[in-house]
Design goal:
155 residues, mainly alpha, 6 helices, 45% helix
């Protein structure tokens, strides 16, 4: 056995161990401070809140944020991919706050989503999505704000 095959076996074993531990290795698509791709673990409360809000997500978000969506684009999927739960993408770790912001429900922002009908999420749909966002934030408390300004990018 050559030393190269030993290195390859160790690398393969390391990947298998990481995968078994539930760690997903991925690139952050140039967004340095965003989610590194680590898999989130949903709590029972969060899963129940998502199940309640899922029809609203389906009506307003899935057309762009799922691979099967009629308006699916790589950029939308890179930000938040909703093909399965917990969500994936480089905003997955802060999904509650991000979704509040893009729906204009953070007390500071105007709605920017859905991109083809800004501000359309209202009433019961908005209430259910915000209840999910609250459960998400309780399960995954936001990390302290970064002290350096991050380069902004469009959603």
């Amino acid at each position: 056995m050559s030393s190269h095959s030993g290195v390859a076996e160790k690398a393969t074993l390391s990947f298998v161990v990481l995968a078994a531990a539930g760690v997903v290795v991925s690139a952050a698509y140039g967004h340095g401070a965003h989610n590194s791709g680590q898999t989130m673990r949903a709590t029972p409360e969060e899963q129940a809140a998502f199940a309640n809000a899922k029809p609203a997500f389906e009506r307003h978000c899935f057309r762009c944020h799922t691979t099967a969506g009629k308006k699916s684009k790589r950029k939308a999927l890179d930000h938040i991919a909703m093909d399965r739960y917990p969500f994936r993408g480089h905003h997955a770790a802060e999904a509650g706050a991000t979704i509040r912001k893009v729906l204009g429900a953070d007390g500071k922002s105007k709605p920017t989503m859905p991109s083809d009908d800004k501000g359309a999420v209202a009433g019961d749909d908005l209430s259910k999505i915000l209840a999910w966002a609250d459960a998400f934030d309780r399960a995954h408390p936001p990390k302290p704000a970064n002290t350096t300004k991050e380069k902004s990018h469009a959603h």
